[in-house]
Design a protein that fits this description.
Two copies of one chain form a homodimer. Chain A is mainly α and about 120 residues long. Chain A has a single domain, classed as Arc Repressor Mutant, subunit A. Chain A contains six helices and three strands, in the order αααβααββα. In chain A, strands 1-3-2 form a three-stranded antiparallel beta sheet. In chain A, strand 2 and strand 3 form a beta hairpin. Chain A is elongated and about 75 Å long. The structure holds a DNA duplex (30 and 30 nucleotides).
DNA sequence: ATGAATGTCAACCATGTGGTTTAATAATTT
DNA sequence: AAATTATTAAACCACATGGTTGACATTCAT
């Protein structure tokens, strides 16, 4: 028999990593940071400058991205250089694609059913 | 010249729809609800039953999914039948894929640069 | 007409989020 | 040694989130 918390995982679709990734993506400032980091590495000052909010606020957003492992930081002297990380995004994309797929396959199933009913009616 | 808030849109990558979609996906119970709705329509009672939380809590989760337009509800007598909606997910997937793409193309660019440097060294 | 089933609403609570400001720490520059 | 730069830390605030319970409205079945 499966342990109880494994069952919970199944019923609640738990995945703290996915939680963190999607939550990180749910704020415009953080998507903006990612967009800029996808082009090139940038340190915190560069990242925060265009973000019409205080430096500490921007810094917190970066940390949310780090918790989700969407961003890694290496410290060079007094500057913290941030770099976008690809792996977790791919997991998220996978979830979405799998979801879309079952959705569509069931739409197709429904369409087929409707077709069949229509054919049956006109018979 | 562009109006000021258009500029803000660009700098902050604003998109309330994306905000809502990603936020909706950031909770295990809501992903679970979606997973089940991707198979077939279900009413609130059916949805809430396996979710180890009170009925009103589950109902609130469904409403978060509705705000994000990931779920639509039609009322049939006393039951509220929920159905998964595909479009907004596709927008989110698109964002992720576009992001992944620029990320990878820049990794390739970096790799090319490194190759070039290496070649230069051994010359 | 009663009663059970389905769902909403409102009030409440604890905790998280997103922002601020001010102060402190650490590395560079002058 | 002093000033500047890059960043964290802490305290605070308003509001959102995620959950509960209890009371209410509708609809369906008996």
């Amino acid at each position: 028999m499966m342990p109880a918390d494994t069952l919970n995982h199944m019923v609640l679709d738990r995945s703290p990593e996915l939680d963190r990734v999607f939550h990180a993506l749910a704020h415009p400032a953080r998507r903006e940071i990612l967009r800029r980091l996808s082009d090139r590495e940038q340190n915190l000052s560069e990242l925060s400058a265009p973000l019409q909010m205080s430096f500490p606020a921007a810094s917190k957003h970066v940390r949310v991205l780090e918790r989700a492992k969407l961003v890694r930081r290496r410290i060079v002297g007094r500057t913290h250089v941030c770099r976008a990380e690809g792996r977790p995004i791919k997991r998220a994309t996978l979830w979405l694609e799998r979801y879309c797929q079952t959705l569509e396959s069931n739409f197709q199933r429904l369409d087929a059913l409707l077709e069949e009913l229509k054919a049956h009616d006109t018979k």
